[in-house]
Amino acid sequence: MADQMQWANALSTRPSLEAAVSDVVQRTVSSLTAPPDLGLVFISSAFTSEYSRLLPLLSEQLSVPILLGCSGGGVIGTTQWGKTQELEAEPALSLTLAHLPGVNIKPFHIVPEELPDLDGPPDAWIDLIGVAPSPVPQFILLSGSFSSGVNDLLQGLDFAYPGSVTVGGHASGGGLGGRIALFYNDNLHREGTIGVALSGNIVLETIVAQGCRPIGRPCQVTKGDRNIILELNEQVPLMVLRDLIAHLSEEDRMLAQHSLFVGLAMDEFKQELQPGDFLIRSILGVEPSAGAIAIADYVRPGQRLQFHLRDAQASAEDLEFLLQRYQKERSSDASAVGALMFSCVGRGEGLYGKPNFDSQLFNRYLKNIPLAGFFCGGEIGPVGGSTMIHNYTSVFGICRSVNC
């Protein structure tokens, strides 16, 4: 029988870091029948004072050629009872080991000063990453902060590696100003972006659940300046929005006071827009005298957008819709071996009022697949063919072999 891709995960809640490391290493290694090629580790911010001890402890017990990871506001993984859990604000450690035959694995650590000019040729980005554009690589990125140049890096990867898939997230600490950690083989970093390019016998498929539902109908930006919408459908944007809100239910009008967003259509040519076709962005403010609306992204004339609302129900329905669509498209193929989940610190129990919601819904549709990840300060995933940084989102990267 040909060498098969294998994927194992373990989550430990031991309050001692030594005990947690021993726990996850023993369980993941014993689950594999071949040596691991890649390790991914996520550690709870409850262990902030012990970040520097993690890699030495792992190296004592684990032999893996490439090991990446980061800190998170919470971590996600499989307990010793086989259940996926999302553990927030308590000590937890999640370790994933993958045996990846036929896959070229290239790790990298990039700081902003190393990034090529966005107007330069794709060769500069290929030289930076050190991976050829064919076969098309799949990327997992873990970033230190929004100031780490990750926006430019995402644009560069999309430019130099057309057709590639990129998932990941910003490492997070425990609350505002919490220290973060990026783990790269034997080194602990506090800034930049670490990542791995996977090329060859591997595919990463994505589900990007932004947790919103559309209201009203799509509008067209007829006049805009950078991130300011000056006209919608040749009308004053604030008047369009007020008219829309006036026709909502009482419950939705209340929700619009604090949970109103804009969805930017990412495909200019798609006629019928559905969940997953929009990039959700925050409304930063309004200018009452001009009736203009400022949002957290650039707009351009001709672009379509639709207002959205976010709450627990909308978030649940959005994820379920995307999972159903994914399952329908892959109904005859059960070759997925593992998955990663990058979820916003604003989701989880704080949004749903109960733990493990997103991961349990995922497991309902994709059964018996090891799921691991962490709660991020910003999530990385594709929408409409472009890789973006999101907020309030759960991004899933589903791993399968090409030759299955």
TrEMBL record:
Tell me the keywords, alphabetical order: Cell membrane, Membrane, Transmembrane, Transmembrane helix
Q: Where in the cell is it found?
A: Cell membrane
FIST domain residues are: 35-236
Limits of the FIST C-domain domain: 237-383
Origin, by domain of life?
Answer: Bacteria
Q: What is its main location?
A: membrane
Q: How does it sit in the membrane?
A: Multi-pass membrane protein
**SMART domains attached here?**
FIST, FIST_C
Per the record, its GO cellular-component terms are: plasma membrane
Task: Please identify the protein, giving its name as recorded.
Answer: Histidine kinase
Per the UniProt entry, what species is this protein from, by scientific name? Scytonema hofmannii PCC 7110
Starting at the broadest rank, the lineage of the source organism is: Bacteria, Bacillati, Cyanobacteriota, Cyanophyceae, Nostocales
